[in-house]
UniProtKB/TrEMBL annotation:
Keywords: Membrane, Transmembrane, Transmembrane helix. It is a multi-pass membrane protein. GO terms for cellular component: plasma membrane. Its main location: membrane. Gene3D superfamilies: Tetraspanin (1.10.1450.10). PROSITE patterns: TM4_1. The keyword DNA-binding does not apply. Coiled coil: none annotated. It holds the Pfam family Tetraspanin. It is found in: Membrane. SUPFAM superfamilies: Tetraspanin. This is Tetraspanin. Belongs to the tetraspanin (TM4SF) family.
Length: 254
């Protein structure tokens, strides 16, 4: 029985080391989603005037639980080293809490993936026509420029979204430079501005951003779901080791 107890303790300590590493990964993914310039721009465009920015909420949950995992992993190690049923009990309780939070984050992202396809058409066109400006001062204008340059697209449904828009009425330009094929992306220099403004196919982006944004949201939500599922699997293993260790303590006391 002593061998079983020691084996359970060692396995739980090894697991918690892996658990700490998964916490770093979870924290990193959450921070990446909120700090990366391109991702922030994509989310600004997609979430503009949408009351429930689900991917943002899911990222905040990932950051919170990633930080909490450090504390829970330490608690599990202490419980295993000190042979404390009380600490192991708290450890198991918090594992269940974290699991529930990750499940909630997964549901939020799954809902978001469905809802984005219903709301994106109207919101993208509205933000282009009403919010995109010639002065390039607003956050939504800068975000749209980043999206159009990085995804090589123009407008929501297409370049025609700029017809009779606030941008066109103010500037007299039919599409912004970010819709053009660029020779210098850092300084927003078009390959051939006159050809772009005449909508010569090889000099501007003919495809709208809707499809590419939806594909981007889906691919990145898969990352969130994958990280959450992987961590959930680790937590189930940790829960089993914790239960086994508690039972080993019980038999050892007899």
């Amino acid at each position: 029985m002593g061998f079983c107890v020691e084996s359970a303790r060692v396995m739980l300590i090894i697991f918690n080391f892996i658990f700490w590493l998964s916490g770093v990964a979870l924290l990193g993914v959450g921070i990446w989603f909120l700090a990366d310039k391109n991702i922030v721009s994509y989310l600004e465009v997609v979430n503009h005037n949408v009351p429930n920015a689900y991917i943002n909420y899911a990222a905040y949950i990932l950051i919170a639980f990633g930080a909490l995992i450090f504390l829970i992993g330490f608690l599990g190690c202490c419980g295993a080293i000190r042979r404390s049923k009380c600490l192991i009990g708290f450890y198991l309780f918090f594992l269940v809490i974290i699991f529930a939070g990750e499940l909630a984050a997964g549901i939020i992202v799954a809902i978001y993936r469905t809802e984005i396809e219903h709301s994106v058409d109207k919101e993208l066109s509205n933000s282009i026509k009403m919010e995109y400006t010639f002065a390039n001062e607003s956050a939504i204008t800068k975000s749209w420029d980043t999206v159009q340059v990085e995804l090589k697209c123009c407008g929501g449904k297409g370049p025609d979204d700029y017809m009779n828009s606030k941008f066109t009425n103010m500037s007299g330009i039919i599409i912004p430079i970010s819709c053009c094929v660029l020779s210098d992306t850092n300084n927003m220099v078009a390959k051939d501005k006159s050809q772009c403004m005449n909508k010569v196919p090889e000099y501007y982006h003919e495809e709208g951003c809707k499809k590419k944004l939806i594909e981007w949201v889906k691919s990145h939500s898969v990352i969130l779901i994958g990280v959450g599922c992987g961590l959930a699997g680790l937590q189930i293993i940790g829960f089993i080791f914790g239960i086994c260790l508690c039972r080993s303590f019980k038999y050892e006391e007899k």
